[in-house]
Structures are given as C-alpha cells and as structure tokens.
Amino acid sequence: MMNRVGQFLGNYRLIEPLGKGGYAEVYKGEHIHLGTYAAIKVLKTINTADEIMRFRAEARIIASLEHPNIIRVRDFDISEEGTPFLVMDYARKGSLQDLLPRGRALPYVTVVSYIKQIATALQYAHDQNNLIHCDIKPANMLMLNHNKIVLSDFGVAQIAQSGRQDAVGTVYYMAPEQIQGHPVLASDQYALG
Questions:
Q1: Rounded distance between C-alpha atoms, residue 110 and residue 83, angstroms
Q2: Domain co-membership, 104 together with 183
Q3: Among this protein's residues, is 135 annotated catalytic?
Q4: pTM of the full predicted structure?
Q5: Of the listed 135, 153, 166, 188, which one is catalytic?
Q6: For the segment 5-38, what is each residue's pLDDT rounded down to a tens digit?
Q7: Considering the domain boundaries, does residue 180 fall inside one?
C-alpha cells in the first residue's frame, strides 16, 4: 500500500491507512478546519480515464443510495495532482471482519441484528437501482456505533441485466451463478447467508 499518510486531499489530511482493495486504498482523514474524521478512498495508481470514470460511477451509485445501513458519500473530487478520491462516513469500530472473534460464535441476537440491517440495505439497493453489490462479505460491513452496521464498497456493483459478465467479487462468498459470470439480485442474499 502506497503510504499517503500526511498528504492532503481536498480539505482532509490523511492520518492513517484503513485498508486496501483491488484498485483503491482507504485512509482515515481529518478535516483540516472542522477536526472531524472521514474515510477517504483513493485510487491506487496512475489513473486512466476509464478508471476515473468507474470510480466516479461508484461515487454516484453510493451517493444515490440513501439508506441508514449504506455508507454515506460526503464528497468526490480530483486533487490538483490528478488523484481521484471519495469522502465517506468514518466507521470508528472498523469492519465485521476486524471485530468478529475467530473461532467463537456470536450470540444469536447479535447475528440476527446484523443480518437484518444488511438485508434491508441490500433490498433497498435492489429495489431502488436494480443494483447487485457483488462483494458481500464481513470486510464490507462496517460498524458505526451502537451496533449499527452499514454496507460499503460498491466498487464492483453491477446493474442487474442479462448476458454474461466477468466474475467479480470474493470467491469464498460468491453464489455459483456469480462465479459463472451471471450474477442476479439473489446472488447478494446468497453471499449474505
């Protein structure tokens, strides 16, 4: 992961890395005037017009989804150096992947609460935009506070349509039809299960 700690993007100073994906890195950023925190998603490499267009499309998709269990986009911009970045709510407690105890079962009530929250977010995305997330996994479920879960990382999301597509997502969680390049709305429910 390229170390951008200390750099400024827009009104944010990047203060610590939070994670990385296939094409982007996420940092905790502090607003230079307000002192508030946000998650700043930054493209990793020198960007082609196509990469920037996809990143902007991700920002538009997430910004259009107004649901209490979907991460909120605060801003999208391109720095003076040409680095595109996305400003989102900061999840202080991290992802479920970070928080889940290894080898220990969670209480049933907790599991049901988490599943209900993500299921309602998915149903909303499916109903509003016919959108398939395509990468449902604990690393993309973030804890805000008071056990509130939000769904993040719509970077590989696809609009439900017929025809073959590339298999995208995390294989361990993929539905069989998604592995074959034919994701459908139910593929997200399979991954959630």
A1: 39
A2: yes
A3: yes
A4: 0.84
A5: 135
A6: 889 999 999 999 998 877 788 999 999 999 999 9
A7: yes
